[in-house]
Amino acid sequence: GEIENQLQNFAQQFTQKKTISLSIISWNLAGENASPKAGLQQLLLPYQNESSDVYVIGFQEYIPLNISSATKGPNLERINGWKGIILSTLNRKGEYIYCGQHSMFGLYMGVFAKAEIGK
C-alpha cells in the first residue's frame, strides 16, 4: 500500500547497497577461559591477505555446563574476555568494532564488523 511505497522512497534516500563479505563461525569452547593462545588467529583469519567485513561468532559452552552456572545467568567476565580477544585478533587486519551480542546458558553469539561499515 501507500505506506510501503513511502518507506521504499525513504529507503532509497537514506541507504546504499554494498556488497560485503561475511564469516559465520561456531566453536565449542568446552568451558575454557578466554586465552590469547586459544587459536583464534587461525579460526578468524585463516588466509594471510583476506579478512571478512562482518563476523558472526558463536560459542557453545563458553562456561562450564553445570547447575551452578545455570543459576547465575550470563558470565560477563568470560564474555568480555572472549570479546576482547576476538577484537584484538580481528584488529590485526584492520579496525573492527563490536556491534552486539546475545548469550543464553552456555551459548554466546557476537557480531563484529569493520569500523567503516559497522557504525
Rg computed from alpha carbons, rounded to a whole number of angstroms? 18 Å
Number of helices: 5
**Structure classification:** alpha+beta
Distance between the termini: 31 Å
Can you write the helix and strand succession as a string?
A: HEHEHHEEH
Report on the biggest sheet: 4 strands, mixed
Number of strands: 4
Give start-end ranges of low-pLDDT stretches: none
Outline? flat
The share of residues in extended strands comes to: 25-35%
| Mean model confidence by pLDDT | 83
Helix content: 25-40%
Strand order of the largest sheet: 1-2-4-3
Describe the structure.
The structure is a single chain. With 119 residues, this protein is α+β, with helices and mostly antiparallel strands. 36% of the residues lie in helices and 26% in strands. It has helices at 2-14, 40-44, 67-72, 76-90, 115-118; strands at 22-28, 54-60, 96-104, 107-114. A four-stranded mixed beta sheet has the order 1-2-4-3. A hairpin with a 2-residue loop joins strand 3 (96-104) and strand 4 (107-114).
Provide key terms for this protein.
single chain; 119 residues; alpha+beta; 4-stranded mixed β-sheet; 5 helices; 4 strands; flat
Describe how the helices and strands are arranged.
Layout: H1 2-14, E1 22-28, H2 40-44, E2 54-60, H3 67-72, H4 76-90, E3 96-104, E4 107-114, H5 115-118
Parallel strand pairs: 1-2
Antiparallel strand pairs: 2-4, 3-4
